[in-house]
Task: structure prediction
Amino acid sequence: MSDCLFCKIAGGEIPSNKVYEDDLCYAFYDIDPQAPTHFLVIPKAHIPSVAAVDASNAPVVAHIFTVIAKVTKELGLTSYRVVSNIGEQAGQSVFHLHFHVLAGRDLTWPPG
Ligand code: AMP
Ligand code: ZN
Result:
């Protein structure tokens, strides 16, 4: 999508601090970290949110979770949280599917 921030980041049009990249997905550090380690994993293809996941794009979502498992191991993270906000009331501010990966501090439950 031409005016989507995360499409531009995935395409290299807007700079980011890369954690991982392959043909299907891109991971980069959050610009406003909420934990000592905070990065985002996104599909390269535009999907608005978890609410738009269906049988046609589910394989990339499954792939993203294999990437999260691999990258967190490589970073030495043994405890972390994966979060995706869906819709404005839940705090979604960028409408391109992304999974937050947060680690490095005690994370409270339930989240606020
Ligand atoms: P959400 O509010 O769940 O939609 O998450 C969007 C996240 O994107 C927020 O945590 C922002 O800090 C992060 N963000 C916004 N712009 C950038 C950027 N240019 N580079 C890295 N992270 C960003
Ligand atoms: Zn997009």
In short: The longest strand covers residues 37-43.
